[in-house]
Design goal:
CATH architecture: 7 Propeller
Shape: globular
Number of helices: 1
Helix content: under 10%
Largest sheet: 5 strands, antiparallel
Structural class: mainly beta
Pfam families: WD40 (PF00400)
CATH class: Mainly Beta
GO cellular component, one term: transferase complex
Signal peptide: 1-20
WD repeats: 25-58, 68-109, 111-151, 153-194, 196-237, 239-275
Oligomer: single chain
Number of domains: 1
Keywords: Repeat, Signal, WD repeat
Length: 275
């Protein structure tokens, strides 16, 4: 998701607060691994190591209904559809699952094809497709037909840690443990240009700017970089400020600010021009 800075800060704080509350109430065996905010801001999807997905009601400050059950191993990633009616989840059981938020039932069957843990899932802007990252590959799934579109997108040499669609849905950006960022053409199903190199450790999160012209990336080298999509050149960074690994990052629509959250629970905002 790409949001204005006030929304981005609120978004990250909501995630951290919900995760902390859930972990405190349900205990360490629950352990929130990933979260996503619904488009209307009323619900948070929670992925946990107890193999389940839960939906947190932001207003009521409680879990909505029961857990979404079906995965047989840790759930590592969750994402709301653009209309907020569905949740996609990716698990260590190598499956992607689509859930109906209202009925809290799985839609259709598990989407199978990956050969290892699924570390990231993302809906396309029109909600028709889900991208998943895992075993050195990215796969694109047709939500309605529940089948993979074309073949896997190959090129990374280690696990893919993060995937997201561009605002127009024509591109996917991926970040990997191989320290590279890659941009993919969804229609042609091929990499655009060359890998974006500069990080010295795993790339853990990537995001497009609101207008789709820039990419922000973060890494376990404790740095954040900004890239120009068209020229594939680095145009900002490295931005530093934490001794802990970064957990998530967002770029403002005007590309003037970045908000990040690190695993030490601290939030940081940078001016991209002054650092």
């Amino acid at each position: 998701m790409n949001r204005h800075i006030p929304s981005a800060i609120g978004w990250l704080i909501l995630f951290t607060s919900a995760a902390a509350w859930i972990n405190a109430v349900l205990g360490p065996e629950f352990k929130v691994i990933d979260v996503d905010l619904s488009p209307d801001g009323k619900h948070i999807a929670l992925a946990s190591k107890d193999k389940m997905v839960r939906i947190w009601d932001v207003v009521a400050e409680k879990i909505m209904g029961g857990p979404l059950q079906g995965h047989t191993d840790w759930v590592r990633s969750v994402a709301f559809s653009p209309d907020g009616k569905h949740i996609a989840s990716g698990s260590d059981d190598k499956s992607v699952r689509i859930w109906d938020v209202e009925t809290q039932e799985m839609v259709g069957r598990p989407l199978l094809g990956h050969t290892s843990w699924i570390t990231s899932v993302a809906f396309s802007p029109d909600g028709k497709h889900v991208a998943s990252g895992s075993d050195k590959s990215i796969r694109i799934w047709d939500v309605k037909r529940q089948e993979m579109v074309g073949g896997p997108l190959l090129g990374h040499t280690l696990w893919v840690k993060s995937v997201t669609f561009s605002p127009d849905g024509k591109l996917i950006v991926s970040g990997s443990m191989d320290k590279s960022i890659r941009v993919w053409d969804v229609g042609a199903q091929e990499m655009v240009g060359r890998p974006l190199l500069g990080h010295t450790s795993w790339v853990t999160s990537v995001a497009f700017s609101a207008e789709g012209k820039h990419i922000v990336s973060e890494s376990t080298d404790n740095s954040v970089w900004i890239w120009d999509v068209e020229t594939q050149e680095m145009v900002g960074g490295p931005l530093r400020g934490s001794t802990a690994w970064f957990a998530s990052v967002r770029l403002s629509p005007d590309r003037k600010h970045i908000v990040s959250r690190s695993f030490d629970g601290k939030f940081r905002k940078w001016d991209t021009e002054t650092g």
